[in-house]
Design brief:
39% strand; alpha+beta
């Protein structure tokens, strides 16, 4: 009996000691820009060892005020959480065992086989899609990323928009009305279309056979080698704070390399207008230009763009696919943390514009070197005037983002 009591007491002491353990995370900001809700990554294994966590144990993260901070454990065994660090300052966070408050899903997405294999994803600020194999089989020419506008809802909207647009009963009713009342069919289609703003945003961006809202592509002799739709997909993380997906593309012929396979890992975090994208080109045997691109929908001299090769960013103010409608403006941009050789607008010839690019006028490109067996990392994304953005704010956001990427937060775990 004494032995049992001793073992019980020892277990209680160990549990009490374990509960008292804490991990301190210090986050330093090396530049004179405030960092707001920027995602921090630390090793989940390191934290587990320091806290002596059992496999089923949970923990909470608090800031210096004692407020609980939401977090996510990612597919690559990282703990991520949003940090707020003042310019040239430091923030301290504490991790200890405990039951965390449930977090609503902010960043998420999925493949939509019911809509020709769209891969669509979003966070609290923005939404995007990449086109899949079912669309490629139709022959429709849509190469780049599509941008969906959304208000600052703080919650997902894509699922509801697709459900409304693709509702089988609604589609059947539209088909039945076409023959007897075409106007009513058209009105019902508009009432459910994600090309109409129903209070949470809409799709008013035109992609077509271009790089769309930030796709990267290899270039040979100044010519873009356009990727088509993805071939395979694997969702790696699906909320609440981070969505990430791996997309593998069909082989391309690049110079004398006839089997170049592109793989992209796209990551969108809560609170960010920009996606991080890591690209590799397997089978490419020689250095080749690669460009992050934004399609231009206005002729030379009319497009509102900003380029800075040394700082590594490009932006453009898109007029939307129907400039006469009350759809506002779409702001698109890309940031490249590596060396950018050129950042410039390149316009299509009249013949290419009319016959090959669906009427688009050109691209603004950030051009870099890609070395075989390396990674090309860049960031791309968008904002919307109806969600509070304007040209000056957007250019500052992207320029600041470029500076932050090149000067990451300094994180130590103690």
């Amino acid at each position: 009996m004494k032995k049992i009591l001793y073992l019980f007491a020892t277990a209680c002491i160990f549990a009490a000691c374990n509960e008292s353990k804490t991990v301190t995370v210090k986050v330093k900001n090396p530049i004179s820009l405030d960092r707001t809700s920027e995602m921090v990554e630390i090793s989940a294994q390191e934290v587990s060892v320091k806290l002596q966590l059992s496999p089923s144990a949970q923990f909470v993260i608090n800031d210096s005020k004692g407020d609980e901070i939401p977090y996510q454990i990612t597919s690559d065994d990282k703990i991520i959480f949003p940090a707020v660090v003042s310019a040239s300052g430091e923030a301290v966070y504490t991790i200890r065992t405990g039951i965390p408050t449930p977090v609503g899903v902010i960043a998420c997405g999925r493949r939509y086989p019911e809509r020709v294999d769209d891969m669509a994803w979003e966070n609290d600020l923005v939404a995007f899609r990449a086109y899949g194999p079912a669309l490629q089989k139709t022959g429709e020419k849509a190469f780049g990323y599509d941008v969906w506008t959304k208000y600052k809802t703080g919650e997902p909207v894509i699922e509801a928009r697709y459900a409304m647009e693709l509702n089988p009963q609604t589609l059947a009713k539209i088909d039945s009305l076409k023959a007897i009342d075409p106007k009513a069919a058209q009105e019902l289609r508009a009432a459910t279309s994600y090309h109409v703003d129903h209070g949470n945003g809409l799709d008013c961006y035109k992609v077509g056979p271009t790089l769309g809202g930030g796709t990267a592509a290899l270039m040979v002799d100044g010519n873009i080698i356009y990727p088509y739709a993805y071939k395979e997909e694997k969702i790696l993380d699906n909320g609440p704070l981070r969505f990430s997906v791996e997309l593998v593309y069909n082989p391309l012929t690049v110079k004398d390399n006839s089997n170049v396979v592109e793989t992209r890992v796209i990551t969108l975090d809560a609170g960010s207008h920009l996606n991080k994208t890591v690209i590799t080109y397997a089978g490419l045997k020689e250095a080749t230009d690669v460009a992050a691109g934004l399609v231009l929908h206005e002729p030379d001299g009319q497009a509102v763009i900003a380029t800075d090769a040394s700082a590594g960013y490009i932006t453009y103010v898109d007029p939307t696919d129907n400039p006469t409608a009350d759809n506002g403006k779409i702001y698109v941009g890309a940031v490249v943390p590596g060396t950018v050789k050129e950042a410039k607008a390149v316009y299509f010839s009249k013949d290419e514009k009319e016959k090959e690019r669906g009427g688009a006028d050109g691209h603004v490109l950030a051009i870099s070197d890609y070395q075989p067996n390396s990674q090309y990392i860049y960031y791309w994304g968008s904002a919307w005037s109806k969600a509070g953005m304007d040209t000056d704010k957007w250019n500052k956001y992207v320029a600041d983002y470029a500076q932050k990427i090149r000067n990451p937060l300094m994180v130590t775990v103690e």
